[in-house]
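QA checklist item 7 of 12: single-chain prediction sanity check.
[x] sequence parsed
[x] length recorded as 543
[x] structure emitted
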Amino acid sequence: MSIYQKFCKETLDEQGGLKSIQIEYPVNFNFGYDVVDAIAGESPEKRAMVWCNTENQERIFTFSDIKKYSNQMANVFKNAGIGRGDRVMLVLKRHYEYWFAAVALHKLGAVMIPATHMLTVNDLVYRLKAAKVKAIVCTGQDEVPGKIKDALCRAGMTARLWCVQGKAEGFEDLTAAMQTASGELERIETLATDPMMLYFTSGTTGYPKGVIHDHTYPLAHIVTAKYWHQAEDGGLHFTVAETGWAKASWGKIYGQWLVGSAVMVYDFDNFEPKQLTHIINRYGVTSFCAPPTVYRYLVRKGIPEMPTLKHASTAGEMLAPEVFRKFTELTGLPLCEGYGQTETTLLLANFKGKTPVEGSMGTVSPFYQIELRGKDGRPVPDGEIGEVVIVPPENGKQPGVFTAYLDHEEQYNYVWRDGVYHTGDAAYMDENGLYWFHGRFDDIIKTGGFRVGPYEIENVLMEHPAVVECSVVGVPDPLRGQAIKAVIVLGGCYRPSKELELEIKEFCNRKLAEYKWIRIVEFVEEMPKTISGKIQKNVLRNG
């Protein structure tokens, strides 16, 4: 029996798909003690993580190892005065120390703040001040220690500083400190409702919001790992994500360990498609998840046979139908799309037991009650575009949904207006009960009395060979209210021209209903993006 079954009751259909699931946990549930240490006690040699890097270094960690090293790190933190409720930032790329640190902080009841090494000094200043960070653990690479010291200076703050995989002036060597720390740790009492994690979203407008999750968050990822990623007990799951992003929580630790799967971690800086497939085959990866960008590269560069791979999934951005079809044709594996937010866990997906449909977000997770609602707050008829909202259970507590925005109660109350959580994302449900994504609800284009989602037009644009990246927005138009504008980044051998603009318009408009026709095309060298790579449509609209 996988350990996740201690914390939930699930009902399956004849195909092994999930019909219903109910999470059950003690009031003091803590992933560090109740999952990691529990597995280490029952199966100490069970594989937890396979790690390698571009320098051909390799480490394989058992759950017994994770328990020991997380305890050592927890004791280092504890001796430095880090305790329940203290906020600690981790800037650790894909270094294996991230997993020790995450579990250590959970055990102490401290609040973990994952952050990417790509943050600028200004980005760091904002986060340090907003979160009142007490300590930072960072990589010694990519000039990160220098940026952190500069940011603390500009913020007028001090913090306890540790460094791994490299030494830096003013930072303690955490690896050396661990060697003299005890591998034993007496359980520190925490509550399931205590804050566990603080993620800064990369919102497309305004400053990033601090999203707080409590200790029930890992349990909500049981559905993510078992029924979307289809990670297996004894298998090896590989999600391509840096630890600074929420995608790492979705695919590199919680749900996977709960269902008994080890995680594959490849510590790299520059993405190389052939290297990823080499890792999959070398280590026998059984399930794989990556953003569409990775699959686009894989399809272009050619995909070798991957005999151990049983399942592939994707999320995070638009996936061109051509890529979906080509990947399936080359591997025999359909790509299973999924959808959720930093504020939530997996909300909709192509789940186990159901045949994935190209381009669809799939069906609602049985873990959530989802509705599509219009601007008036009422459910929309099937086939019409509405905002994805979460209706909480009768007791009001929904594990997996964030508990607060950092110091922004008004904003939190706004997204929870009318008794439901407003995702701000638009979708429609077809006659088969499948959901189709249409971008941000506020990005819906109203043209000539029709409502148009940018996503479907962007999907067609991506089929043109000249288009590498695109974004569709509505711009003011005296006749239609809004006209549809396509902003396009061209491939290397293409150059902007009136002829190409006309060609792209005709290519797309032949495939679109007249009210969805592209009226304006603008070529740009690059898109305005947030730090996490989300295109800032508000900048394009106002540009």
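[x] summary fact logged: The domain at 30-48+60-215 is CATH 3.40.50.12780 (Rossmann fold).
[ ] second reviewer sign-off
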